Amino acid sequence: MSKIVWLMGPSGSGKDSLLTALRQQENNQLLVAHRYITRAADAGCENHIALSEKEFAQRQKQGLFALCWQAHRQSYAVGIELDIWLDSGLDVVVNGSRQHLVQARARYGDALVPICLHVSTDVLRKRLEARGRETAQQIEQRLQRAALYAPDLDNCMILNNDGSLDESVSSFIHLIY
């Protein structure tokens, strides 16, 4: 049975880096889904499809999204192509939202495999400082939010992302296969 991996983690935990690395793997069974987001195409590091609010609303009305949600004053979605990929026997990784895990589970049931990235506070601080997108105050706020990040340990596999990217990719592959 095909599975959808719902990858979650606090900002700066390495989701985008992990997804980029997974795209480079020679695994014909695993796809990394792009998201549709109402933000500029060059904003952040994520490989996404930029849509205006109007485009997003139109596609949502036309039923072109498998899942959609709001977060951080933006609209996010994964397209119905996700269902085609799953029906074709492929496994798909989605940069998911922990606030919308219930919605994803309702749609995909047992095919959904939630994975929560965990990063220690020291490593997270270094990564946030290195990317240079936030002020010192914003970094502290992100660290405080990350400290409150409590994955559902009963229903979520934990992937420690303190080590190298290669280690994380290997651990990810071992978790899902």
Automatic annotation (TrEMBL):
One Gene Ontology MF term: ATP binding
UniProt KW keywords: ATP-binding, Kinase, Nucleotide-binding, Transferase
Top-level EC class as recorded in UniProt: transferase
UniProt-listed GO biological process terms: 5-phosphoribose 1-diphosphate biosynthetic process; organic phosphonate metabolic process
UniProt-listed Enzyme Commission number(s): 2.7.4.23
Pathway: Metabolic intermediate biosynthesis; 5-phospho-alpha-D-ribose 1-diphosphate biosynthesis; 5-phospho-alpha-D-ribose 1-diphosphate from D-ribose 5-phosphate (route II): step 3/3
Function: Catalyzes the phosphorylation of ribose 1,5-bisphosphate to 5-phospho-D-ribosyl alpha-1-diphosphate (PRPP).
Family, per entry: Belongs to the ribose 1,5-bisphosphokinase family.
Positions of ATP binding: G9, P10, S11, G12, S13, G14, K15, D16
Name of the protein: Ribose 1,5-bisphosphate phosphokinase PhnN
Pfam families for the chain: AAA_18 (PF13238)
Annotated signal sequence range: none
Cross-referenced InterPro entries: GK/Ca_channel_bsu, P-loop_NTPase, PhnN
Domain Guanylate kinase/L-type calcium channel beta subunit: 1-176
GO cellular component: cytosol
Substrates-to-products reaction catalysed: alpha-D-ribose 1,5-bisphosphate + ATP = 5-phospho-alpha-D-ribose 1-diphosphate + ADP
The keyword Kinase is assigned to this record: yes
Domain of life of the organism encoding this protein: Bacteria
